Structures are given as structure tokens and as C-alpha cells.
Automatic annotation (TrEMBL), chain A:
PROSITE patterns recorded: CHEB (PS50122)
Source organism: Croceibacterium xixiisoli
CDD domains, per database record: CheB
Name of this chain's protein: protein-glutamate methylesterase
Keyword Hydrolase in record: yes
GO MF: phosphorelay response regulator activity; protein-glutamate methylesterase activity
Reaction(s) catalysed by this chain's protein: [protein]-L-glutamate 5-O-methyl ester + H2O = L-glutamyl-[protein] + methanol + H(+)
GO cellular component: cytoplasm
Magnesium found in the keyword field: no
Automatic annotation (TrEMBL), chain B:
Gene3D superfamilies: Vaccinia Virus protein VP39
Record keywords: Methyltransferase, Transferase
Protein name: Protein-glutamate O-methyltransferase CheR
Cited PANTHER family: CHEMOTAXIS PROTEIN (PTHR24422:SF8), CHEMOTAXIS PROTEIN METHYLTRANSFERASE (PTHR24422)
PROSITE patterns, alphabetized: CHER
Record-annotated CheR-type methyltransferase domain positions: 1-250
GO MF entries: S-adenosylmethionine-dependent methyltransferase activity
Amino acid sequence: MSGAPFQAVVIGASAGAVQALLRLLPALPGDFPLPVLIVVHVPPDRDNALVSLFREKCTLPVKEAEDKERAEPSTIYFAPSDYHLLVEQDGTLSLSSEQPVNYSRPAIDVLLATAADAWGAGLCAIVLTGANDDGAAGLKAVAGAGGVAIVEDPASAQFPTMPAAALAACPTARVMTLADLLIFLPGLVAA
Amino acid sequence: MPHSVEDIEIQLLLEALYHQYHYDFRHYARASVKRRLIQARTQLGFSSFSAMQAALLHDLSTLPRLLNYLTVQVSEMFRDPAYFRALREKIIPHLRTYPSLKVWVAGCSNGEELYSLSILFREEGLEQRTMFYATDINPEALRAAEAGIYPLDQIRKFTENHQQTAAPTSLSDYYTADYGRAAFDKTLRERVVFSDHSLVTDAVFGEMHLISCRNVLIYFDRSLQDRALGLFRDSLARKGFLGLGAKESLRFSKHAEAFADFVREEKIYQRREP
Ligand SMILES: C[S@@+](CC[C@H](N)C(=O)[O-])C[C@H]1O[C@@H](n2cnc3c(N)ncnc32)[C@H](O)[C@@H]1O
């Protein structure tokens, strides 16, 4: 458990994302006290189907992040497909159709780096399964700003490349399996 | 609320840009501005934002280079085809009832959206009674818009998009291709005024029947979004239409009351009676 108070959780996932998130998100209790912001790499020309999928499975409300809304506690936000999701310093969210980063839009790096800027030590960031290296630079920024950086254990991740790249870029990151995360996440407390 | 030294430097840089050149990025969504300034710092070879600020104030060649970072020029013809299809099927029938029309493409970038609309209006037989106003703050983008030339490798996507708008014609009717470029028919811009106009600092310039302002407001903070939306309200004729980008809405705006949903899914609004 982490006793320190937090302001938000951000998660990045790519290949294998749905299965990993299906284990984690439905397990979060309805009174989970933090906003949860998620970037999953999804194909650009499709509506983000993750929202309806997870809305059915989760106790917490699940929605697509909207431009200039405030990140509220006890809410799960997915980045819309084909837009970057950014966090402003006042804790509101912005969308952007800037160029893809790491061939991805939304990019995990963009969310993690801006969330690190906004929430600093109040941020818990997790890089899950994936087959590219998006999120590595972002996780390094999270740790640099004093936040808690976590990677899914590459040994058990469905696709180890992404968490391994994040760990290489951010060697101080904690390594956790999905089972570890199932215990860790519900223990987080709000600032 | 600047946090770090870097944030303070950025604030000062934006102040300098405003006071010296009247480009006002102070209320753009800061997280994205910061990212792009960090890119500019690396790619233009500045050691800090303070060094960038000094160059901006003392070396005239810095401004245009910086503007290309501060403004986002990502665009496509018939971007989000469903939007253009909704214009064709739901808005054009209303516009037909007017003897003359004014259409404003605000934040036209390199002209992709403008040509999309002028093609759509030609297809629907409304072009001859319409004046188009295409505005932006980036002079390079405005020049590109006026030229109407795009790399051929973008044309396939543009063509696909166009087809999905229930188009009665083919995009290839409107351009000639050579040397890897597609040059759009200059008659498409005969009824277009290209102009430098900022949604942040400039005023109403005409009474519009349709304003299309897509993927511009997401780069503004809420106060600036309100400023722009107020400008749109004041620029629209009675029952005029406003079209926004797919992820933009009036929901959080203090001007929400001034508009009614017209095609909800496509973010097309109609000005309410005052
Ligand atoms: C992402 S592009 C949108 C292009 C097109 N409307 C579309 O949806 O594809 C944003 C454009 O807004 C312009 N812009 C930024 N600030 C502006 C302002 N204050 N007033 C007018 N245009 C602005 C930028 O220069 C850029 O060309």
C-alpha cells in the first residue's frame, strides 16, 4: 500500500490493453477517490468502443474525456480515438489533434508528461502491456516530477515491450503484476 | 498559475510575443502550448525559453518560425466526413432559401476545410450566390490556403473522405496532378476572401449564414473559447449556423444559451432568436 495522498491515476496501455484493463478497472470500488485517466492505442477511424465496454463492467462511472472538463474523483476517463489527451495545471483536461507522437494519437507520453506537470508528486502513473515504446518518456517525466511510476511486470505482461521500454527509461519505476496492482490501486488515498 | 521556472519563462515569452507582435497566446490551452514550445526549443536550438524570448524580441526571423510551432496546422479535406454530409443533407436545404450567402471558415489552416466547403457548395449549386471568408492568424498557412496545392499522397485520404459525404461528383474533377502535387482549380477560390483575422483579438466583420470553426477552440482555454463563441454569436445572421469540431461543444460555455443544437452528433448549432 502507498500511504501518501494522491490526486490522480493515469494509465497507458497498447496491445493487450483490453484484457489487462478488464482485470483492473472493474475491481476499483465505487468510492475510489481519484480520477483515472487512460490512454489506449486504438485505431483512428473508429469511435472509441472502450467506453461502452467498460461502462458495462465497472462500478465507477466511465466516460470519454471531453475538452476542458475537470478531472473528477471516482471517474474513469478514456482519451477519444484520434485525439491526444492532456492535463492542464488546474486539473482540467484538454484534447488536441496535434501530430501523432510515437506514431500514436492519442499518445501515452503526452498524457503522462502533462499529468506529471499538473499533479507532480500527487500522480500515480502506470504503463501496462504493449508492443511499442510509447509511455517511456512520459513515465520518466512522472518520476522526475516526484510521482509514483509503475510498470506492469514485463515477465507476465501479455506484450512486454512497452513496460520494458518504460522501465529502461525510468529504472526507479516499481514493477508490479496485475495481481499486485489489484491490491495496490484500491489502497490509494486522495489528497 | 506558473509552477516552475520554465513555466514562468513561458509566461514571459508569451507576454513578449503579445506586446511586441500582438499575437496573443496567453490564454491558449497551456499544456499543449508548452509541449510545442519545448519542441521549438529543441528543434530551433535554443538553450532556454529566455533565450528564445530574446531572439523573438531582437531577431525578426524568429517570429514566423515560432508561429509554426504555436499554431497547429494538422488538417484534411472533408475531415470527419459525417460533418460535411450533415451540412449537405441538413443545412444546405435551409441555406437554399437565401438569395445570397456568407460563409466563414475560421482557422482555415492550409485551406483544406475551405476547399471542402467550396466544392460542396458547387456540388449543391449554391457557390455562385456565396461569399466565403477564410481566416487564420498564421500568414504561411493563409498563403498555402490561397495556393490550394497539396501533396499527392494526401489526396487518397481526401478522396475517401469526400466520397463519404454522399458527393455527386468526384474529387478528381477539382484538381490537376503533376510533380507529386495536386493543384486545386482556381475557380474554387474566385468567391473567397482570405484574410488575417484572430479570434482572440479581432472583431466581427460581417453577417454570416454559416460559420465553420473546427479544431481551433480545443487549443484555447475556457475564457478564450467564450470570447470566440461570443464573436460567432455576434457574427451570425438570424438562424445562422455554427459548426464546430468533432470534440468541441458549447456545453461548458457561457454562451450555450445563444445556440440551439441543430445536428447534435456533428456539433452543428443554430443561433437562437436574440
Ligand atoms: C488544427 S487547425 C484546424 C484546421 C481546420 N479548421 C480543420 O478542422 O481541419 C487550427 C488552425 O487555427 C488557427 N488559429 C490558431 N489560433 C487562431 C486564432 N486566434 N484565430 C484564428 N485562427 C487561429 C491555426 O493557425 C491553425 O491554422
